[in-house]
Amino acid sequence: MRDPLSVLTDAFTSFVFGKVETTRLPVRTSTGQAQAVYLPTAAPGLGDSGVIIGREVYSGKGYIYDPFQLYGQQLPAPHWLVLGESGNGKSALEKTYVLRQLRFRDRQVVVLDAQGEDGVGEWNLIAQELGITPIRLDPMVANDSGIRLNPLDPSITTTGQLALLRTIIEVAMGHGLDERAGFALKVAHAYVTEHKTDRQPILTDIVEQLRHPKAESAEAMNVDIDDVRAWGLDVALVLDRLVDGDLRGMFDGPTTVGIDLDAPLIVFDLSHIDRNSIAMPILMAIVGVWLEHTWIRPDRKKRIFLVEEAWHIINSPFVAQLFQRLLKFGRRLGLSFVAVVHHLSDVVDGAAAKEAAAILKMASTRTIYAQKADEARNTGRVLGLPRWAVEIIPTLTPGIAVWDVNGNVQVVKHLITEKERPLVYTDRAMTESSVTDPELEWETEQRAILIEQQQLNGTSQSTVA
To answer: 83: domain CATH number?
Structure first.
């Protein structure tokens, strides 16, 4: 029992100052109801070394990503898949990511630019800003002043040349080479490689040998010379398309002198090629293998290979096999492959489902912009996304995407600085990326992002150099 004086004192204090303490009975509740008393928490970020992408939506924290910094610690592979329908900001993300990566001293980027407007590729403005001339592959001007890439360039190994020739033919024919056609191609290539030593061998030499094989080619397998000629006829007709057909002038001569493979940014402008024709996967294969043997070198540089309209690669079994090897090989030499695809269904349900699955498995980073509900469910099933992420994908607004970095799943708003804006929002890009225009209150934040990025890059270069 309380002391009467204490009771009197408490009563007087309550009368003068009001009730200062309330005694409540205990309350019994569930953990689901009680969770509201805990402060909200956000998933951990990816570290503070790399390039700034934007901010994590739920926590407001800055989101920093760099596959080279994360590789071996949080990433088993540095390759990246970007998905989403047009009009949601994929183009803006690609461009700002490349511009920010190039602030590091030891970065180099190749872009296969398959989209364009007004006669130039979508990356033309960025190339101009950096003082770089895009490598424009255009069959309409190739015979006059266009760029040539030689599939038989001596810088490519003989094994690589033969593999590339087979891929070109198989993509064009839509099926693999049988043993007889493969033999005819092999002996023609071997003869040209051995006897054309005074200059670069070219495709015309291969076509000539397929049409007129030498007797020793038949004798090596104890077959008739007419049989070898017949086996190689279809092969010769396919290659003739690159020599004297609609793709002539781009691959039927020595590699153009002066292509700067040491430039920080190399842009292959494929915008003059019909994206829906068989020419596009053929071009992808030739450029990919040519880069494998001429660009990727053990010089401690970190390289990024960004491919727009990448379903031309993943949807062709023969091209996908070449790029699958490139990804495995390049991972040892610091290559990050970035594939930009509109719909995952374009590739997982195609003819190269097995090869596509292998490439997707190597992409440890996946960025998914808004998709329709059915497509989002399919994407979530294939990529193994958590249920909550699948449910919000159809609700995402332009500029916001779900990022899955080897199981670390966060929702990220991409931010663009004032300096980047005129390079990113070109006339053509307005149809895809203008809707990602930040709100007015972002302007001060963008300035802070730029300053923070510069500080981070300044401190990180000593780490990655």
So the answer is: 3.40.50.300
